[in-house]
Amino acid sequence: MKSLTMLILVCLSFEVYSQGYCSLRDPQAKIKSFFPEFINFKTIVSTVDDNARKKLTKMIPFKLYHYDIGRHSIYSINSEKGPRGIVHARSEQSNYGLVEIAWALNYDLSILDFGFQRCRTSKKSIIQDPKFRSLIIGKNFYQLCRYIDSRGKLLDSFNIKAEDKEFAQIIIQSAIKTIALTQISWREVIEEIKNTKKADVNLVKYIKETDLFKEARFYSKDETWIKARLKKEPNLELEVRILDGQIKELYVPINEKLKGLDMDILKKEIDKLKIKFIE
Length: 279
Prior knowledge:
Helices cover 34% and strands 28% of the residues. The protein is an alpha+beta fold. The chain folds into 2 domains: 20-195, no CATH class; 198-278. The radius of gyration is 20 Å and the shape is globular. The termini are far apart.
């Protein structure tokens, strides 16, 4: 009888702590599909608590579900060249049942790739459309938010067939939520990984003020990193990785005070910083 009681308690505990737990069904296969060159990965579990939920609701205009809260995993991927990216799986409600989407993110939290783990509708073929994928891949939180209105609905300007709009909205909302949750609940882990990528760079130049930035610091060795603070919100620091003169990573903190940030304008200002660095 005692053994039976213990078994019931263990099962109940497992049920409670597994609520909201999003993970990859087949990590090796899914990670390899995103990162063919990967050599290993690390599973990092974090609890999306009520505090995280409150922060998230200030950033996104659509509702959360009960399974968005609880224990969740991300996967930090390594290749022979070092840290490669992150995989984060999310579950979404739809009129076609639960949809599970695996998202591959760069360390600046832009979308690298994505695919379904579970989806029971023929509409899932939308993700094979290169035109649709191009609207998502490479985009960050602020760029994706420009696709939706103040209620979280997909804008009419989003270039997609009318019959695919409802399902596309689920995917766009999932991407936005995934990026935001990744920063909120795994920020310290991601910062630690990013720091290993730029451990050997040295401060080479400091610019006090530009039209958009309060200050900018340049670090360089094999590649150049820029850390800059916006005049609008000097407590928020963005990071840029530049290689061969091109922006390879652009991390902008997700914060409600930066709602409506125009990434095109930001990139033009970063190009001006690059010129000042060369001068």
